[in-house]
TrEMBL record:
UniProt modified residues of type N6-(pyridoxal phosphate)lysine: 190
Protein name: Aminotransferase DegT
Presence of keyword Transferase: yes
GO molecular function, one term: transaminase activity
Organism, as annotated: Paracoccus zhejiangensis
Keyword terms, alphabetized: Aminotransferase, Plasmid, Pyridoxal phosphate, Transferase
Active site (record annotation): 190
Family recorded in the similarity comment: Belongs to the DegT/DnrJ/EryC1 family.
Length: 372
C-alpha cells in the first residue's frame, strides 16, 4: 500500500501528460513557455483570485511574498510552531524575527488567542509587528476570519501559507484568494503536485503582483536585461507547468475523492480514536489524514501494528519549530506552546490519496481498531 500513490494518478493521465511534454519539446520554450501562462490562468480561475504567478518552489513563494512586503530587521512575523520549517525559515533571511505561536488542538492551525499574546509580547520586546503567516496545515484552512480581524486591528499583512491546502474552502472562499498574498507548493506529494519542484504566489493587489513578477526573474524591469531591483531566479519550468495543467484538469475530481476517503476513515475510526475535525463551512483537501493517539506509547503501538500489516504511516511533525536548534532562540507566546508540544508527541498520519481503494481503507481501519 502506498502512503501517497502518484503512480495511480499517472496511469490515469499518462497519455495526456506525454502529449503535453512532447508539445514542450517541440516548441522548445523550456523557460516561461506558453504553458506557464496557461497554468497561471487556471490557478486564478480555481481560486477566484486576480493574479497567480508560478515560481520555483513553495519556499521561494514565501520568500517572494516577504520580499514584496519588505520584511526587514526589527520586524516581528508571527508563525505557527507546528508546521514544516519552510514557513519560518524565510523570515530570518530578511533580518526579521519569527515569533512562534501555538495551534488549536482541533484544527492543528494557528490559535488566534496565542497570536494575540505573541503580538503583545513582541511589542514589549521592542519589535514591530509586521505580518502573520498562517498555515493551512494538512489541507484545512486556518481560521481566517479571526486572523483577519487581528491583522486589520494591528495593521499587519497576511501571507497565507497554503502549501498543503491549495484548493480548500473557507466559508465560501477558496485558498489562494485569502490573505494579502497567498502561497502554495507543487512538491510531488502535495495535493496538486508536479514531477519536481514548483510553487506559486497569489494576490488581488496589482502592484504586489507586478513586483513579484519582477522579483522572480532577477528583478527585471522592461526586459530580463533591465534589472531594476535585487531579485531571485525563481521561475516555474515550462515542463512542470505542462504536467500541472493536466493535473489541474482533474483536481476538483481528486478533491472529491479525498473527501470520500476521509469520510470513510471518519466513519470507521471516530469511535475509537480522535479523528480530524472539519467545520461545516469549510472543506479540507486532505494533504494528510492525521489521527491523535492518547499518548506517545499508543501512537508507537498503532504505528507498529500498521507496519506489521504492510501499511505505511508517518508522523507530521515530531518536533515543533521552537524546539529545534535553528529556531530555539526566537521569541514565542509567553504562555508557552503546550498544544503544539502535546500534538507532536501523539499525532500520526494514515495513507491518503484519491486512488486509495475501499479495500485498502478497510485494511487500515480494521488494523487500527484491532490494535486499539
Amino acid at each position: 500500500m502506498q502512503f501517497i500513490d502518484l503512480g495511480a494518478q499517472q496511469a490515469r493521465i499518462k497519455d495526456r501528460i506525454d502529449t503535453r511534454i512532447q508539445a514542450v519539446l517541440a516548441h522548445g520554450a523550456y523557460i516561461m513557455g506558453p504553458e506557464v501562462k496557461q497554468f497561471e490562468a487556471g490557478l486564478t480561475a480555481l481560486s477566484g483570485v486576480k493574479h497567480a504567478l508560478g515560481c520555483a518552489n513553495g519556499t521561494d513563494a514565501l520568500q517572494l511574498a516577504l520580499m514584496a512586503l519588505k520584511a526587514g530587521p526589527g520586524d516581528a512575523v508571527f508563525c505557527p510552531t507546528f508546521t514544516f520549517a519552510a514557513t519560518a525559515e524565510i523570515v530570518p533571511l530578511f533580518g526579521a524575527t519569527p515569533v512562534f505561536v501555538d495551534v488549536q488542538e482541533e484544527s492543528f492551525n494557528i490559535d488566534p488567542a496565542s497570536l494575540e499574546r505573541a503580538i503583545a509580547a513582541a511589542k514589549e520586546a521592542g519589535l514591530t509587528p509586521r505580518g502573520i503567516i498562517p498555515v493551512d496545515l494538512f489541507g484545512l484552512p486556518a481560521d481566517y476570519d479571526a486572523i483577519e480581524e487581528i491583522a486589520e486591528r494591528e495593521g499587519l499583512w497576511i501571507v497565507a501559507d497554503s502549501a498543503q491546502g491549495y484548493g480548500a474552502t473557507y466559508r465560501g472562499r477558496r485558498t489562494g484568494s485569502i490573505g494579502t498574498i497567498a502561497t502554495t507548493s507543487f512538491f510531488p506529494a502535495k495535493p496538486l503536485g508536479c514531477y519536481g519542484d514548483g510553487g506559486a504566489v497569489f494576490t488581488d493587489d496589482d502592484d504586489l503582483a507586478k513586483l513579484m513578477d519582477s522579483l522572480r526573474v532577477h528583478g527585471k524591469g522592461g526586459d530580463k536585461y533591465d534589472n531594476v531591483r535585487i531579485g531571485l531566479n525563481s521561475r516555474l519550468d515550462t515542463l512542470q507547468a505542462a504536467i500541472l495543467l493536466e493535473k489541474l484538469a482533474i483536481y476538483e475530481d481528486e478533491i472529491a475523492a479525498r473527501q470520500r476517503v476521509a469520510q470513510r476513515y471518519q466513519a470507521g475510526l471516530s469511535n475509537v480514536i480522535a479523528t480530524p475535525h472539519v467545520p461545516d463551512d469549510c472543506q479540507s483537501v486532505w494533504a494528510q489524514y492525521t489521527l491523535k493517539a492518547r499518548d506517545g506509547a499508543e501512537r508507537d503501538r498503532l504505528m507498529a501494528a500498521l507496519k506489521d500489516a504492510g501499511i505505511p504511516s508517518v508522523v507530521y511533525y515530531p518536533r515543533p519549530l521552537h524546539t529545534q536548534t535553528a529556531y530555539a532562540s526566537y521569541p514565542k507566546d509567553p504562555a508557552g506552546l503546550p498544544v503544539a508540544e502535546d500534538l507532536a508527541g501523539r499525532v500520526f498520519s494514515l495513507p491518503m490519496h484519491p486512488y486509495l481503494s475501499e479495500a485498502d481503507q478497510d485494511r487500515v481501519i480494521d488494523t487500527i481498531r484491532k490494535a486499539i
